[in-house]
Specification:
Layout: H1 21-32, H2 41-53, E1 57-61, H3 64-74, E2 82-85, H4 92-99, E3 103-106, H5 118-131, E4 137-139, H6 150-160, E5 163-167, E6 175-176, E7 179-180, E8 189-193, E9 206-210, H7 213-222, E10 227-228, E11 245-246, H8 257-267, H9 270-288, E12 293-294, E13 302-303, E14 309-313, H10 315-318, H11 322-331, H12 347-351, H13 360-366, E15 369-372, H14 380-394
Length: 395
């Protein structure tokens, strides 16, 4: 007897975490330990990430959004100040300014890398200086895992007097001219994400990296209610080991030991993850050549983490609309996505006064971009299925 409904093909997500038996064992050890939170696993994770990235200090928190928020506060962003970032990012890269009572503005993207354009940044800075409206903080985002031109951005920071907070949520394991992303060689601080679809995961989590001791101390204090037990910071001598003082208004942004144990285990697999993502990206490059798609370009001197593989549809040659291509791929159980809808066109930001055509390159990008599945567990057979489906739809 025939089945009433034919079996559906297995879905291929655009991203997925990779959890090994060693990861599970690390979490189990943490669960059996004396500390589920505020124990030794978090500082051990911080030390491991700071060593890997080459930064002097690391402050682990419960999300990259929290790390952005604390980074802005530690860099002195507040009411009356302005933060600039790219419109091609997740909303957290801009929201962090508003959390601090500051304003936000955007810099259009580079048409080849889809990162923040250093040319557009320079032009906007020159204009802003004439008007007396320079930013306090600039947040370049290493989109899809490709590093921005950080050395040029840092030169502009020195020239125009702003702080640089790298949003490297996509880019752990990436490098520019051999310099690991996160070393803060060309920035004042860097933010990492450990969300499940990112390069490594701690379930949820983030980290602020910096070479500035004061920035690290401020971020560490603010992540835990602004409370300190450090005798050097207390207003009077402590009565005993239980004594603490709230010195400023902070938050509960702490990462747990269980999450840190997973993150530390995952960090040991980072090289394999990056190698696998780059191998899959090269397979896409070869297989998609000749289709009406613009494939990602990795700039000379960059090692991309390839958190995402984004192609842009040539709408004149494709014979299918951007929306229809997304819908058709999803109908085939292939979880394509769009990274990102421009932040300035979100309803909340429109209420702040942003309008269409303000950042035309980012807006054009969003009408063409399609994120294809890419993650360490993606098999060659599943990737071939993605390619076959694209070829059929774009024929």
């Amino acid at each position: 007897m025939k089945a009433l409904h034919p079996a559906r093909r297995a879905a291929i997500p655009y991203a997925r975490q990779s959890i090994s038996s060693a990861d599970v064992a690390a979490v189990a050890r943490a669960l059996r330990s004396d500390f589920l939170t505020q124990g030794p696993a978090v500082p051990a994770f911080e030390r491991a990430v700071s060593r890997r990235c080459g930064a002097e200090h690391a402050v682990a928190v419960n999300s990259a959004t929290s790390a952005l928020h604390l980074g802005c506060l530690a860099l002195g962003l507040g009411p009356g100040d302005t933060l600039w970032t790219t419109p091609n990012t997740f909303v957290a890269s801009a929201n962090c300014a508003l959390y601090c009572g500051a304003s936000v503005d955007f810099v259009d993207i580079d048409p080849s890398t889809w990162n923040l354009s250093t040319l557009a940044l320079r032009r906007k800075l020159v204009s802003a200086r004439r008007k007396g409206q320079l930013p306090k903080v600039v947040v370049p985002v290493h989109f899809a895992g490709q590093p921005c031109e950080q050395e040029e951005i840092m030169e502009l920071a020195v020239q125009f007097g702003f702080k640089v907070l790298e949003d490297a949520s996509h880019a752990l394991g990436a490098a520019r001219h051999g310099e690991p992303v996160g070393s803060c060689r060309w920035s004042h601080a860097t933010v990492l994400s450990f969300h499940p679809v990112k390069i490594i995961t701690s379930v949820e989590g983030g980290m602020l990296l910096t070479n500035d001791t004061l920035v690290a101390q401020q971020a560490a204090s603010l992540r835990s209610h602004g409370i300190s037990r450090d005798p050097r910071r207390l207003t009077r001598a402590p009565d005993g080991p239980w004594y603490y003082e709230q010195l400023e208004l902070g938050f509960n942004f702490r990462l747990t030991d269980v999450q840190a144990a997973l993150g530390t285990s995952q960090l040991g697999r980072l090289d394999d993850f990056i190698a696998c993502r780059n191998r899959l990206a090269r397979r896409y490059d070869r297989a998609l050549r000749g289709l009406p798609l613009r494939l990602p370009t990795v700039r000379a001197g960059n090692l991309s983490a390839f958190h995402l593989y984004v192609a842009r549809l040539d709408r004149r040659r494709a014979g299918i609309s951007h929306a229809d291509l997304h819908a058709a791929m999803r109908a085939e159980q292939i979880g394509v996505n769009l990274h990102y809808m421009p932040v300035h066109l979100q309803p909340y930001y429109r209420k702040l006064g942003f309008r269409p055509r303000a950042f035309p390159e980012a807006e054009r990008y969003a009408t063409e971009a399609i994120t294809l599945p890419l993650y360490p567990g993606l098999t060659d057979a599943d990737q071939d299925r993605v390619v076959r489906t694209l070829r059929r739809l774009l024929r």
